Amino acid sequence: KLCIAELVWVRDRTMDGYIMPEPGDLDSLELLTLSKGKCALKCRSYEWCSSFFYNDLTGSCSLRTLVVKTVSGAVPVTEFVYYRAATEWCDVRMGFIYYPQANFCFRIDKGPSTSWIDARSRCQDNGMDLVSADTPEKLELLMRTIKETPEYRLMMYTGGIRPFGEWDTPWPDGKPHFIWVNDKPIDASTLPWGPGQPNNLNNVQNCIQIDKNRGLLLNDLDCTDSIAFICEKLE
């Protein structure tokens, strides 16, 4: 690992010998540097950068917006190694993904599917909570990471819910009302819902999930359904 510019840069050896093309609509940069440390400094100098590929043979430094979690779609190039940002409190070697541009640390659970209540308990038992994608930047980084990682499961709970006192009732005034588990309100009109969502089917859909079946959009869901979930760790 490298300790550069107030961050720890951790080598992900599962990506050794590969380079992943960045989606064309996201920031990336190709340049030459004299060392991995210089490449890390360059990454830190761009507010959008969270990781980089480095070629020891050529000095090629390839900066990335997203954290890469799969070799699916990657190009084999023997000399490349891959580093991603981390901090002491967000250890990416423990399965976390860290985005310094949003100070955003989360982990997509790989354990058994479960209900929303049990999912939250499992997050909290490990000093976390279900993810609150409470800024446009956090939501975009979360959704794009899931999109670019085919191995993740199809449906995942977030920390978006109806206020507990409104569960299993019709929407007040017929309008959706959600909050994040950190108590920040949600403007439902700004979220990327799937077609016809949210709809509070049978007045029991109290939880917000990310649904890859619906084109990686959001959906309201019965909180007793067993699906995967995403935990967020705070500094």
UniProtKB/TrEMBL annotation:
<keyword id="KW-1015">Disulfide bond</keyword>
<dbReference type="InterPro" id="IPR001304">
    <property type="entry name" value="C-type_lectin-like"/>
</dbReference>
<protein>
    <recommendedName>
        <fullName>C-type lectin domain-containing protein</fullName>
    </recommendedName>
</protein>
<dbReference type="InterPro" id="IPR018378">
    <property type="entry name" value="C-type_lectin_CS"/>
</dbReference>
<dbReference type="InterPro" id="IPR016187">
    <property type="entry name" value="CTDL_fold"/>
</dbReference>
<dbReference type="Pfam" id="PF00059">
    <property type="entry name" value="Lectin_C"/>
</dbReference>
<feature type="domain" description="C-type lectin">
    <location>
        <begin position="101"/>
        <end position="232"/>
    </location>
</feature>
<dbReference type="InterPro" id="IPR050111">
    <property type="entry name" value="C-type_lectin/snaclec_domain"/>
</dbReference>
<dbReference type="InterPro" id="IPR016186">
    <property type="entry name" value="C-type_lectin-like/link_sf"/>
</dbReference>
